[in-house]
Automatic annotation (TrEMBL):
It comes from Vannella robusta. This is Peroxidase. PROSITE patterns: PEROXIDASE_3 (PS50292). It comes from the Eukaryota. It holds the Pfam family An_peroxidase. Keywords: Membrane, Transmembrane, Transmembrane helix. SUPFAM superfamilies: Heme-dependent peroxidases. One of its GO terms (molecular function) is peroxidase activity. The chain crosses the membrane at residues 67-85, 106-132.
Length: 631
């Protein structure tokens, strides 16, 4: 009886999952399976706050093992029916004798097969489950640094080295030589002189630009691929960024990019902790205390000059000083490095508190502090899109960044438009159109609970760690705001990261450009074929003008980048015109004002403001951040 019950239960278990695969309605929530099996094989997985169909058997069991279940089940049913028929038509004693004679040889032949099936049915699932448990230890105290098992049910999701989802197929142009210069098109799309008139000065927090850039770096890192040559883009004469002196002789050489992501696809502070055990070991070498990351006496990361194993920004050599970080792009500008340093200091602060509270070893202190730092960022982004101060005409810069990356998400991510499962309808994130999401931002927020998508990019480990650490540290009051000299953490900055641009929502592609004249010009370039305009932008205006960058990446990179580029372009232009490019006090003053038009992105290629020169710019930014001022 026990064996028979086991086979029945295993068959139901496996066949139920098979039915989900074959019959599930894309717009429903496995109601058909509920009706037929009276048990819905869905799991309210809090990975992304949405309901995900969890295909039990196909995740944890071998497909051949399922067929073994099916064969044994149907064979058992067949024999059972025969026995019942014999019992109905004959007396039990005669039935048993006749059954024994008729099927004795068959049973003897099938016995080895049945024994083999039993072994497979018991050993394979057990070994599989044990292997999953070993690889995906759900403890936050010793997580994988490469993003593996960020979602224990789908361990490979988000792992470093995973290829990006490609929304559009690659394509070639028949008339490539006749296409317009992509830099000219970019400048026409984002006319900086006209955009000075936009009402943005009072509605932007400079910290936002840095936070958004840090988030991008946390989620993705393209690697250039120059094996197939490069794209030579002539720079237009008097380009406001690349040809300020109007020589007309500049050319930008850009390579394609690989689809592989060099970072994890989770919001897990990869720029701070790295994505490999070797890099993490390097970042911890020379630490000042148990559980801490390496930091010099001034509170900066160590320099990388003495470490041959250190990773560096592409195109730089050891002759240029850089801070040693988990992501060398943190050295790109002073604001980005300031956010990085703030998170580094916060990790070490938490580690010191834990050291004074618990008798833990070095690794346990480190991974607990890392998890708490992770939770802090998780909560910051969790709260940002739903800022109560947001009005109906604002566009959240964090939204721009996240939507740009939405194709990295697995296709099974489904967004609900209602917290009530009985009333909700579900839609794959890949089914949203550009207009539905980008051009009607607030509607998307209010209707589709965008915060859940952000949460989907925070690994399941962070959610579990949140509960575990809060329990561990429930008696420690280290979130309280302290005076600046006592080194408060990120919470003293507050969660007011979202301020409004003051721009109205857009309803068409034409409104991406500033006026009807430019829109008409773009349409005329391609005979009015707007799809080709979008495809052209997608092919040429990605992070590296890559032919392999899909449309959304291309358009939204420009939209997100407009914050930084408009800041950078106009400030550099104005400073150069007035000859005050070295007026660092003036730059700091502009930075403190938080003006979109006047704040300069302190790019190291233009300003050389990182190690090797006085660090008072970074100190000034850090002081403002740590004191919680709204700059």
């Amino acid at each position: 009886a026990w064996v028979w019950e086991y086979w029945i239960s295993q068959w139901t278990y496996g066949f139920g999952s098979l039915m989900v695969n074959q019959f599930k309605d894309q717009e429903s929530n496995c109601n058909l399976v509920d009706t037929i099996l009276l048990r819905c094989v869905q799991n309210a997985n809090q990975l992304n706050g949405n309901t995900i169909l969890k295909q039990f058997s196909l995740d944890h069991f071998n497909r051949y093992e399922l067929w073994a279940y099916y064969v044994c089940f149907f064979l058992g049913m067949y024999l059972t029916v025969l026995i019942l028929l014999q019992i109905v038509n004959h007396n039990p004693k005669e039935t048993v004798m006749r059954f024994t004679r008729r099927f004795r040889k068959l049973i003897l032949c099938l016995l080895p097969i049945l024994l083999l099936v039993v072994i497979i049915a018991i050993v394979v699932p057990l070994a599989t489950v044990l292997a999953i448990d070993d690889d995906c230890d759900y403890s936050y105290r010793n997580p994988r640094i490469d993003g593996y098992c960020g979602n224990p049910d789908h361990p490979e999701w988000g792992k470093k080295g995973t290829d990006f989802y490609q929304w559009y197929e690659d394509f070639e142009y028949d008339d490539e030589d006749d296409l317009p210069n992509p830099r000219v098109l970019s400048n026409r799309l984002f006319d900086m002189e006209k955009r000075k008139e936009l009402p943005s000065e009072a509605h932007i927090n400079v910290l936002q630009a840095g936070i958004a850039q840090f988030l991008v770096h946390d989620l993705l890192y393209f690697q250039s691929d120059c094996s197939q040559g490069h794209v030579a883009v002539p720079i237009p004469e008097c380009d406001p960024v690349f040809d300020i002196t109007c020589t007309g002789k500049h050319v930008m050489h850009l390579c394609n990019v690989k689809r592989e992501n060099k970072m994890t696809s989770w919001i897990d502070l990869s720029p701070v902790y790295g994505t490999s055990d070797d890099i993490l070991k390097l970042l911890r070498k020379g630490r000042q205390g148990p559980g801490q990351l390496a930091m010099d006496k001034k509170g900066y990361p160590p320099l990388d000059l003495d470490d041959d194993d250190a990773i560096r920004m592409e195109g730089t050599t050891k002759n240029r000083k850089q801070f040693l970080t988990g992501d060398p792009r943190s050295n790109s500008n002073a604001l980005l490095m300031s956010i990085h340093i703030l998170l580094l200091r916060n990790h070490n602060r938490i580690a010191r508190i834990l050291e004074n509270t618990y008798d833990w070893d070095d690794d346990e202190l480190f991974y607990t502090a890392r998890a708490e730092n992770h939770i802090l960022i998780d909560q910051a982004f969790e709260n940002s899109p739903n800022d109560p101060k947001q009005d109906n005409f604002g566009m959240d810069p964090i939204f721009w960044v996240i939507y740009r990356l939405h194709t990295m998400l697995p296709s099974s991510l489904r967004v609900s438009n209602s917290p009530d499962p009985t009333k909700a309808t579900y839609k794959s994130i890949h089914d949203y159109t550009l207009k539905e999401t980008v051009f009607n931002t607030v509607e998307f927020f209010n209707t589709y609970n965008f915060t859940e998508i952000v949460n989907g990019m925070v690994s399941t480990r962070a959610k579990a760690a949140n509960t575990g650490i809060i329990d561990d540290l429930r008696n420690i009051r280290y979130f309280e705001t302290l005076p600046c000299e006592y080194e408060p953490g990120l919470f003293s900055v507050g969660m007011d990261l979202v301020k409004l641009y003051g721009l109205r929502p857009l309803n068409s592609f034409d409104e991406l450009v500033y006026d009807d004249e430019i829109a008409l010009e773009l349409r005329n370039l391609y005979g009015g074929d707007i799809d080709r305009v979008e495809a052209y932008i997608g092919a040429h205006f990605g992070d590296t003008f890559s032919r392999h960058t899909h449309v959304t990446n291309g358009i939204l990179f420009n939209l997100v980048g407009t914050i930084r580029r408009s800041i950078h372009n106009n400030a550099l232009l104005n400073l150069n015109k007035h000859g005050d490019i070295t007026d660092r006090d003036g730059i700091i003053k502009k930075l403190a004002l938080g003006s979109l038009r006047d704040f300069i992105l302190l790019n190291t290629e233009n300003m050389d403001c990182l190690p090797g020169t006085p660090n008072h710019i970074i100190d000034n930014i850090l002081n403002r951040l740590e004191c919680g001022l709204d700059h």
